[in-house]
Design goal:
By secondary structure, the protein is α+β, with helices and mostly antiparallel strands. It has helices at 24-28, 46-59, 68-81, 112-117, 139-150, 191-202, 250-264; strands at residues 4-7, 10-13, 31-39, 42-43, 88-95, 100-105, 119-125, 155-160, 163-167, 171-176, 179-182, 206-209, 212-213, 222-227, 231-238, 241-242. Bound molecules: pyridoxal-5'-phosphate.
């Protein structure tokens, strides 16, 4: 069981992981966070996550109370404390009032069928403010996710001015004529996104970072979403648009396979 967390300056059990109701995280939804996974006891892409966390802190004009090195050491210490040589997830938080936490959680595991058969997504007309930042304020994402649930879909995709940006907590990719395309601007630079782009380039797959028009969806070959929590997840339908032949595409399958190899290393 995962039961140890770092709160400000000490390790506490889950039952003692508490902050003040006066914290700006509660009063204003103000704070930075990041979320990473630990596979078989090893944190995945640790550097990139800590760097992004520090970037989010700086962008939100908060003050980092720990260095990159200190955060790294705390994360590793917590993995040991929770006695995990298996999988778990780590959430880094700096609240608006300066409370620093390293929280440990069991990793979310989605049903195999989501990866084998693909999922449905719906579009949601909204744009994230400060898309490059991981803020604890997920108000828009929560409303979009509820909308997706109401529509029987697994993810909501933000669309603004006819352009597709990203999911509520995932990046968005399409495949057209064997080229892998993902938005470059107005999105969170996901760590999973980066890993996928690197993987693809290494396999000599043409990668294009550009705007994707909603109108393009009816003629794309494949769609998938990607995040730390979901990894690579195929999408077979967006609103009423069936993607490709309605089955998980070859490139998506190939990238899922390669990505899994990396996490199992
Ligand atoms: C809005 C948004 N886009 C993309 C992602 C994917 O980022 P990562 O791959 O670093 O988990 C997330 C992750 O939570 C997110 O919240």
């Amino acid at each position: 069981m995962v039961d140890f967390h770092y709160l400000d300056s000490k390790w506490v059990r889950t039952k003692d992981l508490k902050i003040s109701a006066f914290d700006l995280a509660v009063l204003r939804g103000y704070g930075a966070f990041d979320y990473l996974r630990v596979y078989k006891g090893k944190p995945f892409m640790l550097d990139l996550h800590i760097e992004r966390f520090l970037h989010s802190i700086a962008s939100l004009k908060l003050e980092a109370s720990k260095t990159k090195q200190e955060i790294e050491e705390l994360i590793l210490e917590g993995i040991k404390k929770n006695q995990k040589d298996g999988d778990l997830s780590v959430r880094l938080i700096l609240t608006g009032s300066g409370v620093f936490m390293v929280m440990y959680e069991e990793s979310t595991v989605y049903p195999d069928k989501y990866y084998e058969n693909g999922i449905k997504a719906v579009t949601f007309r909204e744009k994230r403010v400060r898309p490059d930042v991981k803020s604890i304020n997920y108000e828009t994402a929560m409303i979009a996710a509820n909308f997706a649930k109401e529509k029987g879909a697994f993810e909501a995709i933000f669309v603004d001015d006819g352009k597709i940006y990203e999911g509520t907590n995932s990046n968005f990719f399409v495949v057209i004529d064997k080229e892998l395309i993902t938005p470059k601007f107005g999105v969170l630079k996901g760590v999973t996104r980066q890993v996928i782009l690197d993987l693809a380039r290494k396999r000599s797959i043409e990668v294009i970072e550009r705007d994707i028009e909603l109108g393009e969806l009816s003629s794309v070959d494949e769609v998938f979403i990607a995040s730390t929590r979901k990894e690579i997840m195929p999408v077979i339908q967006v609103d009423d648009i069936k993607i490709g032949n309605g089955q998980v595409g070859d490139m998506t399958n190939k990238l899922m396979e390669e990505f899994r190899k990396l996490t199992k290393k």
